[in-house]
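Need a sequence for this fold. Nothing fancy.
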């Protein structure tokens, strides 16, 4: 009873086939769909299961890009941040930030205020200001007070990165595209030109050949791993970023705080997210496969060291965390000694019948998508993205309540139908999280859920913001899965065991 389509339901040929269901592939799908072209997106795992679910969840211009002289990237990012907040409130929302300034420490007040003035001018709105010591401590009482001069206040934005990808994908599907998760792709070529893909359903083992006018390789950190792909992908430098998620009861932040790590002056941050507090990040070379990204003891020590310096009164330890997560950034290798000095610009390449894209930022997915489609249009003119249009489908009746805005942000125009289809008692939140039972039921019914991890880690983030991965809620969640997906008792038990093992291997707090 899954809403996931079968290979047999696909067309024999598509104008555009996109391989990769992360933010880049989802952005290309959304830009291409509904323009009179036939579009297919396939993802080898679940949608958003790679880098795009394990980012820092910030939609931002990147102050450090400004510091590094990457003016164009910063300007582009700030403008996209403003656009996305306008188009998807409830999914991409303003996030106030404070950066404490200490006597004798970098960065100084005037340097930061000058940088933030430029940042504000790029975004077309003045958001930054100076707070004296008393005002800073009133807003964030747990800050280290010694030598605190005050703080600069500014604004960026936050999101649920997986939900952002999912909204793009399912709105693309609603506009006529076909999307399929848990489906591996191999490239087919004829006469020196990529002519389509061989698809393998990872669940059933079924295979099917599909023709394509143009194929897009949007697999990010896996860009060189597609069987049959011709040479041409740039050399990547996979960089791992790891985070800890703390209960808000132990770290009662009401806004974000950013500061520089005392060891290497890299920026770190903490902010309220989905009912918990998200803290990160590291930035170091990842030597394993992207699927094996797990926080290591050195990263834990690094994060706790910075936390203790800025919030000594909290006495937080990694064992206080609810969960951890790590993601691998597909950074194009520029040969820099310092991983953090590598550019976050995207890189594109092409061969006959193929366009590849990797690197880039979450914030600028729309710009990247349009660049890719313009390149693809050189081979198939109907793929030109044409005039700009809103990224997201707009609901007919925008709502003003916090809960209503949040549902519309996550589900777009379908939010009203979600509320109408589910019992009133399922609109109640799950524990202290912002998620409702109705969201779980809707996702199980409509959003191509295959396994329990899809629900717990991507359709919702219960596995990150609940103690023990949300295990206390599993009986009721599995009942929903039984009703919507037809899982019997044995399947429910197997899914529960598999999810618990996965969570302990990939996301359990260090030392648990």
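Here you go.
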């Amino acid at each position: 009873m899954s809403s996931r389509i079968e290979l047999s339901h696909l067309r024999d040929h598509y104008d555009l086939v996109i391989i990769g269901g992360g933010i880049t592939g989802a952005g290309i799908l959304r830009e291409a769909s509904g323009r009179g072209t036939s579009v297919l997106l396939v993802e080898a795992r679940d949608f958003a299961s790679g880098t795009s679910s394990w980012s820092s969840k910030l939609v931002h211009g990147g102050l450090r890009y400004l510091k590094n002289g990457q003016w164009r990237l910063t300007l582009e990012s700030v403008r996209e941040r403003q656009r996305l907040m306008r188009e998807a409130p409830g999914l991409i929302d303003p996030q106030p930030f404070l950066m404490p300034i200490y006597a004798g420490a970098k960065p100084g007040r005037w340097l930061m205020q000058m940088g933030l003035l430029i940042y504000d001018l790029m975004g077309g709105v003045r958001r930054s200001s100076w707070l004296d010591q008393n005002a800073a401590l009133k807003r964030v009482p747990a800050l280290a007070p010694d030598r605190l001069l005050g703080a600069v206040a500014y604004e960026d934005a936050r999101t649920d990165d997986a939900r952002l990808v999912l909204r793009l994908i399912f709105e693309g599907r609603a506009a006529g595209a076909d999307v399929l998760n848990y489906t591996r792709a191999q490239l087919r070529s004829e006469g020196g030109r990529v002519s389509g893909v061989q698809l393998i359903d990872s669940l059933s083992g079924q295979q099917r050949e599909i023709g394509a006018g143009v194929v897009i390789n949007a697999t990010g950190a896996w860009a060189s791993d597609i069987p049959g792909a011709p040479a041409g992908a740039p050399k990547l430098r996979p960089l791992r970023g790891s985070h800890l998620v703390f209960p808000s009861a132990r770290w009662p932040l009401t806004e974000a705080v950013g500061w520089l790590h005392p060891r290497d002056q890299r920026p770190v941050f903490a902010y309220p997210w989905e009912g918990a507090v998200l803290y990160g990040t590291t930035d170091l070379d990842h030597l394993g496969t992207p699927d094996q990204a797990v926080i290591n003891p050195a990263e834990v020590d690094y994060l706790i060291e910075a936390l203790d310096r800025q919030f000594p009164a909290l006495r937080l330890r990694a064992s206080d965390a609810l969960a951890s997560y790590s993601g691998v950034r597909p950074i194009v290798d520029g040969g820099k000694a310092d991983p953090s000095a590598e550019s976050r610009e995207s890189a594109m390449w092409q061969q006959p019948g193929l366009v590849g894209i990797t690197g880039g930022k979450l914030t600028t997915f729309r710009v990247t998508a349009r660049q890719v489609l313009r390149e693809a249009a050189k081979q198939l003119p109907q793929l030109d993205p044409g005039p700009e249009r809103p990224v997201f489908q707009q609901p007919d009746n925008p709502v003003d309540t916090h809960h209503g805005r949040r549902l519309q942000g996550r589900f777009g125009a379908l939010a009203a139908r979600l509320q109408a289809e589910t019992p009133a008692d399922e609109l109640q939140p799950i524990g202290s999280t912002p998620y409702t039972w109705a969201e779980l039921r809707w996702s199980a019914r409509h959003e191509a859920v295959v396994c329990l991890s899809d629900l717990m880690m991507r359709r919702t983030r219960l596995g990150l913001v609940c103690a023990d991965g949300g295990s206390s809620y599993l009986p009721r969640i599995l009942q929903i899965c039984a009703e919507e997906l037809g899982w019997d008792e044995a399947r429910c038990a197997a899914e529960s065991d598999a999810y618990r093992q996965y969570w302990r291997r990939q996301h359990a707090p260090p030392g648990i």
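For context: The longest helix spans residues 489-506.
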